[in-house]
Design goal:
The chain has one domain. A hairpin with a 4-residue loop joins strand 4 and strand 5. Helix 1 crosses helix 2. The chain has about 110 residues and is α+β, with helices and mostly antiparallel strands. The protein is about 35% helix and about 35% strand. The chain is globular.
């Protein structure tokens, strides 16, 4: 539950939004962390789409999940027991190991330009 306060022309209005975290999102984050010896997350705002949760496992594997808002993303990570980094740290980025499929798809994209 998120409470938002609006101030306009000296008035005060409070609105409560029901932003519950989907259980499937928490389960997906927990599953990834369990399969990869733990994980850290970076949350990126992606406009109307909401928020992208980039998960980086201790073994270098990575994946992403999407949430409706950055607040829901942070709460899901907290409930799943995954630490959220506020920025991309060099150590975290260096830990990521792209799969061969990703390298191939990136190569196709640059060749098609």
């Amino acid at each position: 539950m998120v409470t938002v306060a609006f101030m306009a022309d000296g008035s005060h209005t409070t609105m409560t939004l029901d932003q519950s975290v989907p259980g499937s999102l928490i389960a997906g984050i927990k599953s990834f962390a369990g399969d990869h010896g733990g994980a850290k997350a970076v949350i990126e705002y992606v406009g109307r789409r909401g928020a992208r949760i980039v998960l980086v496992g201790e073994d270098g594997a990575w994946a992403d999940q999407f949430a409706d808002t950055t607040e829901i993303a942070r709460q899901a990570c907290e409930e799943a027991g995954v630490a959220v980094e506020n920025t991309w740290l060099r150590e975290l980025a260096e830990q990521m190991r792209p799969s061969n499929n990703l390298w191939r798809s990136m190569g196709r994209r640059s060749l098609s330009r």
